[in-house]
Each structure stands twice: as structure tokens, then as C-alpha cells.
Amino acid sequence: MWCDKELEEKIKLRYYKDVINPNLEDQTYLFVLPSVKKKISIVNIRTNSHELHRETGRWSIPKIPCDEIVCHLCDTKKVEDEKNFLLYC
Structural domain boundaries of the chain? Predict the structure, then answer.
């Protein structure tokens, strides 16, 4: 599917293959979930294509360190990341 050169050049693609889906298999949630909107939301989280400040903060100038980005969606004052968003928010 992807060549090794592409995986080395693209950090997110390499992360997806190494951590999320090492065998590059079809993901069952794509077939189980009836809602296209829910499928898109899960895909966005899994591929870091979301608008949590952890992702968008990397684009700001000056860059905000990831461990300083506090969740603005809940009152926990925890670092805003995918884990906090999915499990605690």
C-alpha cells in the first residue's frame, strides 16, 4: 500500500502504521458504526486530523508545548490530548 520511503517521510503516517494499525488491516468500526459522522470523528482522532488544541497548538507561533495545553472542553485542568478528550471530557 505505502512504500517505506513514504512512511519515513511522513510522521503521522509512520505513527499510524507503527502504533495504531501495524498490519494496515481494515478496521471493524468502519463496518459496525451506522453513522458516517461517528466514523469520521473516530478516523479524525485516530489520524490526528482533529481540532483539539494539542494538534492546532503545533501550528501557532510561538509553538505551545504540548504539556502546557490545558483542556478547554472540561473543568479537569488536565492536558488536552486524545486520551483526556475520549475518556474524561
Answer: 1-49, 50-89
